[in-house]
Amino acid sequence: MVMPDAARAAAREVAALLREASSALFLTGAGVSAESGLPTYRGTGGLYERDPTDDGVPIEEALSGETLRTNPALAWKHIAAIERACRGARPNRAHAAMARVEARLPRTWIATQNVDGFHRDAGSKNVIELHGTLRRLRCTRCEHAEERRSYEGLAVPPSCPRCAALVRPDVVLFGERLPPRAVQAFEAELRRGFDVIFSVGTSSLFPYVSAPVLQAARFGTPTVEINPGDTELSTVVRHRLRAPAGEALEAVLAAWR
Ligand code: OAD
Known about the structure:
Blueprint: H1 5-20, E1 23-28, H2 59-62, H3 65-70, H4 72-87, H5 93-104, E2 107-112, H6 118-121, E3 127-129, E4 132-139, E5 145-147, E6 167-171, H7 180-192, E7 196-200, H8 207-218, E8 223-226, E9 239-241, H9 245-256
The structure holds 2'-O-acetyl adenosine-5-diphosphoribose (OAD).
Residues 29-31, 34-35, 40-43, 46, 113, 131, 172, 201-203, 226-229, 231, 244-245 line the site of 2'-O-acetyl adenosine-5-diphosphoribose (OAD).
């Protein structure tokens, strides 16, 4: 895809911002992993477009904390499908570009809704996983937890080797609260403030990811949206790069040199 001229001009403006900045926040979502071949949740080809699921249950219901409790096999069927999609995939140039920003600026944070672990794979260290990670499994009854890069060979639904209770991924399912430690870390970094805030590859539907951008815009902090589609933030942000994340971020980095 050839980047539109408006996005190129915006990339130069954002590069100028980064030259002056000492801190940046990236709020990221499924669109960042789209170039890795992972489906997004919403939009064409998105996971929620195939609603209802083959089982006749809306995906939001199948992937809920309630279904995990009452029908673990059904919830796990969909969890395993998402994990399978991640398994052969790798981080892409969008993840790499954000890691390069972290290496260059004194303080960069990523607050991601993605559960695929790709930001860390790409070398980013300051990553807050607001929706948890598929790479950690934990028992629903005892303290047992294990890091696991792949679910290959895992019996689904899995049971705890210690107490035989149901094991689940350490992710946020529908109807569940965000992990308190991630929320605390996120709030602490937001209190410190950022010189520039990016929203990348997310539909920004959840208030906790749109609010920092809305607030920054209100107080005059530079805001950037990178997304080939429209969101409720598109008309709010100061700089809009209407392009895929990898291409847009590479254009920003190229202009930043
Ligand atoms: P969505 O699927 O809602 O939105 C993906 C966004 O990425 C859309 O705005 C697309 O236009 C955009 N997009 C698509 N391809 C892109 C590309 N190559 N580069 C940049 N952007 C691109 O995904 P999220 O906003 O992450 O939560 O969804 C938020 C949460 O909703 C998910 O974490 C998940 C879901 O319910 C839970 O499972 C708890």
